[in-house]
Amino acid sequence: MRTPIAYYLVLSAVLFAIGTVGVLVRRNALVIFMSVELQLNAVNLSLVAFARQLGQVDGQVLAFFSMVVAAAEVVVGLAIIVAIFRRRLSANVDDVNLLRW
Amino acid sequence: MDLLVFWVVAPVSVGAAVLMLLQRNAVFSALLLVVNQFTLAVFFAMLGAHFLAAVQVIVYAGAIMVLFLFVIMFLGVDRREALIEPIRGQRFLALALGLLLVGAVAVAVASGIGLGAESLPAFPAERDNVAALGRALFTRFVFPFEVTSILLIVAAIAAMVLARRRARGLPDEEELEVPRELEQGSGEPAARAPEPAGRRAGGRGR
Asked: Which residue of A6, B89, B100, B154 is 20 to 30 Å from B170, comparing CA positions?
């Protein structure tokens, strides 16, 4: 028996919510970043599931682009984390509050 | 068969994601995220997206996570995360909002297409996923595909600019303030702090 698409969508929502909770709860910038990656992956899963449901390849192309953007985002984000760490000697997001009102 | 694989792999995926959040050590978090991404590659393969399954393993579980581990090791693995909550009840609120998100999506899916009502349709006639994806990428999506190359070049240059060390003698970030606690705590930034002024003055004289 084939898996209903709803299973994939709910699984995708669960993974996305776990990523959201991680972004909100954790203080380590690297773990927050990993949670964002988890969210992106969760959305990719639902895109691919929809592509399969509709029998078209467009959703996979969109997932492919989102992977490329995620790779670029990881490179820039990690560079920013390293730059902040050089200056503040900390990877904790609470220490970076210069722009806070 | 398909459903069996789903029910075996989905708990592994969710469990790895939850454990990733609960890990104190960032290295274990990264390794659990790799597990999660492998399970997602399995799902992609089950959904007929063979190319994306390969890309998921090569790019995500391979390249991106190696980059993560590299930065974790660079920053030092034995850093303790403060357990105090900056906002009271933040953890509880985050958990409640996460559950609310799952519930909202589940309700939306249930009312939209029905939970577990109909199975996915049979595979489309064109079974060769890689060829179909390539054809779509280089015909209809050729412009975004080319824009992607610009994005990657910009990201690479940005990473180099952000992460490089400033050349000695140039006015740099060392003159900016160092947090008080760090000055007393490590001693190393405090010892270095007065140096740039003299060095810059000397550089200007030359």
From this structure: B154
Interchain contact, B182 vs A89, CB within 8 Å:
yes
B135-146 pLDDT, tens digit per residue, is: 888 999 999 999
Nearest CB to A24 within list B26, B40, B90: B90
Tokens at B45, concatenated: 């393969």
**B40, A41 contact by CB (below 8 A):** yes
Query: ipTM of the assembly?
Result: 0.90
Residue of chain B whose Cα is closest to the Cα of A54: B121
Rounded CA-CA distance A62/A40 in Å is 12
Cα radius of gyration (chain B): 25
Q: Cα separation of A66 and A86, whole Å?
A: 30
In Å, how far is B143's CA from the nearest CA of chain A?
Answer: 12
3-state secondary structure of A28: strand
C-alpha to C-alpha distance for B148 and B152, rounded to whole angstroms:
6
Q: What value does the CA radius of gyration of chain A take, rounded to a whole number of Å?
A: 17
pLDDT tens digits along B7-36: 999 999 999 999 998 888 888 999 999 999
> How far does CA A85 lie from the centroid of its chain?
22
Q: Is the pLDDT of residue A3 over 50?
A: yes
For residue B152, give the 3-state DSSP assignment. Answer: helix
Distances (CA, A) of B78 to A17, A90, B67, B86, B148: 28, 12, 18, 22, 37
Closest chain B CA to residue A80: B162
With H, G, I as helix, E, B as strand and everything else as coil, classify residue B146: helix
pLDDT for B60: 87
| Interface contacts (A, B; CB < 8 Å) | 247
**CB contact (8 A) between residue A79 and residue B48:** no
Quote the tokens at residue A45: 């899963």
pTM: 0.80
